Amino acid sequence: MLFRLFGTLLRVSMKPQVVFVLGGPGAGKGTQCTKIVETYGYTHLSAGDLLRAERCREGSADGQLIDSYIKEGKIVPVEITINLLRKAMEETMQADEGKCRFLIDGFPRNQDNLQGWAAVMDGKADVRFVLFFNCSNQVCVERCLERGKSSGRTDDNRESLEKRIQTYLQSTTPIIQLYEQQGKLRTVDASRSVEEVFADVKNLLDRES
Ligand code: ADP
Ligand code: C5P
Ligand code: MG
């Protein structure tokens, strides 16, 4: 009886604690997540990075689809993305039981992402809040074009970026508004220097934890 109670308590305390990280393409989500990981006990999972890795994985059934969606700046069907996220979270927690705090970067990006999360993760993870890096489209595009000089990414070019910005405005902005209405949005002005942005992020995370 006592053992079972202890087991239940342990499982409850081990429920993944999630912070979603949103913002336009190039707003600095990845840069800030890397800095957060250095200072706080979070694991950073970028949906885009996971999709790019899956695209290259030998034997992947979804490689071609992911490739074309990324170039077109479209959002990949959530069945693919949620499986990658779920697997990455499980592997992290299996390797180290104490690692239950996650920054999930670039997700949920549309209604389909949101529904997929609800279907697979509701009750299995707590979404604490959403960290939103607010940055003008113009600055976002400039940063991506600069990154494109060395990133090797197929979507850091003007043609793909126009489509990515359209997708962001049409599909992601309503998700951000939804979280704002729920009182879950924590907005940071991401147009400033990396260190200035991080100073705000630190203040915010210190208040939340
Ligand atoms: P995201 O993950 O949101 O697409 P990244 O973190 O990859 O954005 O940043 C996009 C590009 O902009 C990278 O080349 C990065 O070095 C640069 N960058 C990130 N944050 C800033 C900032 N605050 N000021 C200037 N450049 C930045
Ligand atoms: O976040 P990042 O800029 O790395 O995303 C690159 C691309 O990966 C997106 O433009 C989109 O094609 C794909 N992606 C997706 N679904 C997500 C996150 C990224 O389809 N939730
Ligand atoms: Mg990124």
Automatic annotation (TrEMBL):
Location comes to:
Cytoplasm; Nucleus
Q: Under which EC number(s) is this enzyme classified?
A: 2.7.4.14, 2.7.4.6
| MF term (GO), any | dCMP kinase activity
Q: Where is this region: LID?
A: 146-156
| Keyword set includes Nucleus | yes
Q: Which residues bind ATP?
A: 26-31, 147, 192
Report what the protein is called.
UMP-CMP kinase
- What are the top taxonomic ranks of the organism? Eukaryota, Metazoa, Chordata, Craniata, Vertebrata
Q: Gene behind this chain? A: CMPK1
